């Protein structure tokens, strides 16, 4: 378990938002392949940056972010009900493209290795 209080609260908020995405948020703009990767809390626990990974086209990603911003009041209320905090944190949703970029990098490495083999290079 993480020692820092802000990190522990962030982990708990991440679980709550993930559960809300699965069971209670019914907006069709939020794809099934939406994941909460991380929640970073401010040291005073009044702000939370929620990093989301959305699998889909750019339009689907933008629609999902708009839907999450629209649902932020509901999500904030649910977080406040489930965690006893002095102040319900203000939620800031951010799109995390790290998984997509990692996949693109792996594809690039695979293509480069295939091209190297085709030219007669040695495997490393």
Content of β-strand: 15-25%
CATH superfamily: K homology (KH) domain
The gyration radius over C-alpha positions equals 19 Å
Task: Give the count of helical stretches.
Answer: 4
Tally of structural domains: 1
The biggest beta sheet, please?
A: 3 strands, mixed
Low-confidence stretches: none
What is the CATH topology? GMP Synthetase, Chain A, domain 3
Textual characterization of the structure:
The protein has 4 helices and 3 strands, in the order H-E-E-H-H-E-H. The protein has 124 residues and is an alpha+beta fold. It has a single domain (5-97), classed as 2-Layer Sandwich (GMP Synthetase, Chain A, domain 3), CATH 3.30.300.20. The protein has a 3-stranded mixed sheet with strand order 1-2-3. Strand 1 and strand 2 form a beta hairpin. Helix 1 crosses helix 3 (72-82). The N and C termini lie far apart (39 Å).
Q: Could you give the topology of this structure?
A:
Blueprint: H1 5-23, E1 34-41, E2 47-54, H2 58-70, H3 72-82, E3 90-95, H4 98-118
Parallel strand pairs: 2-3
Antiparallel strand pairs: 1-2
Helix pairs in contact: 1-3
Descriptive labels:
4 helices, alpha+beta, 52% helix, 124 residues, three-stranded mixed sheet, GMP Synthetase, Chain A, domain 3, 18% strand, elongated
């Amino acid at each position: 378990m993480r020692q820092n209080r802000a990190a522990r609260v962030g982990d708990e908020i991440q679980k709550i938002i993930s559960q809300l995405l699965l069971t209670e948020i019914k907006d069709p703009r939020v794809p099934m392949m939406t994941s909460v990767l991380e929640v970073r809390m401010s040291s005073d626990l009044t702000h939370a940056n929620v990093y989301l990974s959305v699998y889909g086209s750019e339009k689907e990603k933008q629609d999902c972010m708009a839907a999450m911003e629209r649902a932020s009041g509901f999500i904030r209320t649910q977080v406040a009900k489930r965690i006893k905090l002095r102040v319900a944190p203000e939620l800031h949703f951010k799109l995390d493209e790290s998984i997509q970029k990692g996949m693109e990098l792996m594809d690039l490495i695979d293509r480069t290795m295939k091209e190297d083999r085709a030219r007669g290079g040695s495997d490393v």
